[in-house]
Specification:
2 domains, 6-stranded parallel β-sheet, hydrolase activity, acting on carbon-nitrogen (but not peptide) bonds, transmembrane, membrane
Length: 257
């Protein structure tokens, strides 16, 4: 697996060598090659959470999944979360909700309902800033700690599972997560329910890629997602899948002890 801690010094050495070749050989083509490769790989690593390029991430259960998958929901709680919870209960399914701190403040009763019904709450930052990928380490830590504090004050549990907004990771996020001692959770099956307007396409996308051990990404913020779940949950049941929480699937601790 490609890792930033290993490749970064290698790129520095390669860049220095390429610069010397350019100075004494008259051509900087190799320096440009190294530079473009470093930029491309760093960008890929920042936006593809499955790589674990900057920090260890969990995005699926690779072995011994035994027909289990993990439904996850980001950006709530919202008024749509209650209907999601009703459907999960009807099909005896468990899920993980990566909650925004501000949303927990807005809907504390729904956050409590999530926990009371046996689901797991994870950290999704306090405000889900659009500039998350550009925050300094101290600001990343502040977002995580504030969200965790609100969740604790609301449900009496401090989450250990964290999903970064937009799935973005970088050195600041890596250091922030290390400081707060949380574990990054990605996904292996992305519904694209926030950008795809056609419910049929969302449903087909998830079902087409579905396999044991998947961590499936949804957002409990729209009726569109609720409507897809009305079809997906009976499909999972029919195909012999069972949805469990992420911590159950991966044998992790969902909360601080």
């Amino acid at each position: 697996m490609l890792k930033h801690a290993i490749l970064y010094p290698l790129f520095l050495v390669a860049g220095c060598i390429a610069s010397l070749v350019g100075i004494f050989g008259g051509s900087f083509i190799w320096f440009l090659v190294v530079l473009l490769l470093a930029i491309g790989l760093t960008t890929w690593g920042a936006f593809d959470i499955r790589l674990g390029y900057f920090t260890p991430t969990f995005f699926r259960k690779k072995y011994n999944a035994e027909g289990r998958v993990a439904l996850t929901f980001d950006d709530g709680p919202s008024l749509h979360t209650t209907e999601v919870l009703r459907l999960l209960k009807a099909y005896q399914s468990k899920a993980t909700f990566f909650c925004i701190g501000k949303q927990v403040l807005a809907y504390p009763h729904i956050a409590k309902q999530i926990v009371d019904e046996g689901h797991t709450i994870g950290n999704h930052t306090y405000a889900h800033p659009k500039s998350f990928g550009f925050l300094k380490e101290k600001d990343v830590v502040a977002e995580l700690e504030q969200c965790s504090s609100i969740i604790y004050q609301t449900v009496g549990k401090t989450p250990k599972l964290f999903r970064p907004p937009f799935g973005v990771t970088n050195p600041s996020v890596a250091k922030g997560v290390q400081y707060t001692k949380q574990q990054i959770i990605g996904w292996s099956n992305r519904s694209l329910d926030t950008v795809t307007l056609q419910e049929d396409k969302i449903y087909e996308r998830v079902c087409k890629k579905l396999k044991s051990g998947d961590i499936i990404l949804f957002h409990d913020t729209s009726q569109r997602t609720v409507n897809v779940l009305k079809r997906l949950l009976p499909y999972l049941q029919k195909q012999g899948y069972i949805s469990v929480s992420v911590d159950d699937l991966l044998n992790l601790h969902g909360y601080e002890k």
